[in-house]
Every structure is written in structure tokens, then in C-alpha cells.
Amino acid sequence: MKAYRIAKRKHKDTAFSGFGARQYGGRWNFPKHRAVYLSESIALAQLEILVNLGEEDSLKDYLLYEIDVPDEQILVLADDAYPKGWNSPRASPRTQAIGTDFLIDGDALALAVRSCVVPQEFNLVLNPEHPEAEAVIDGAVEVRFEFDSRLGA
User: Rounded to two decimals, what is the model's pTM?
Assistant: First the structure.
């Protein structure tokens, strides 16, 4: 599966380290657990950035990466496994527990989870500590990209 990550240029060297998720946590991980968030399309990756943009943030100086995650290394979260309120504006401890358990188990390279922004599409939670992560991350390609100026900031 082709997947996409948009990261600030200043984080170019650590875009696939999972350190931001480790420091702050995310919808699908508790702090202290590394995770790399990807989207199944460039458009979804853009939307995920836009909904998390702060008032002081700019849409300038972002980079886009394309990465190929082997289908056999993706675990898809079953529809009946989503806890109530999984898509609320703030991350819930229940979704964080699901993702953190996945990261700790290490059975697959990535967990496919529905996007809160577009529930019909998927984001991937990539485990950078998985044995196959380094090879997959090394294959990431930077793609020419900039946000359309009509999107704001």
C-alpha cells in the first residue's frame, strides 16, 4: 500500500522517527511510545494537517513523503473494535490504548485505522520499532509538494 506523510521541513531528519508521537502522544498512542502517522492518500494527509493546524501555524515549508508499506504487514482495525467516541475532537485513552497495545505487540508493521476527518478512508499507525520498519522507511521518497494557497494561512 502506498502511504503518505506530510511533515514540517524543520523535522525532515526525524520525519519517520516517531519522536513527536513519543513526546506528545497521538490519537492512537500514549506518550512514551513511538509511532509514525501516515495516510492512504495525499488529500487525506493534507486534511489531517489542516484539522490540527494552530492559529499561529503556516502552511509553508512542509514536505511530502511517499512510502510503500507491504500489505501483508498491515493490520486493519476491525469496525467493531472502535470504542465509542473514537472520532471525538480530542484523542481518547481508549483509542490510545488500542494503538499502544498494537505498538507493544509488534506483530505487524502498521495498523490501519479509520480517519476521524473522513471515516471512509484510512490512516496508518506505523511502528518504527518493528523489525521491517527501517527497510520500509529507507524506501520513503520525497515528493514535490506545497499546499494550495486557497487553503488558508
Answer: 0.94
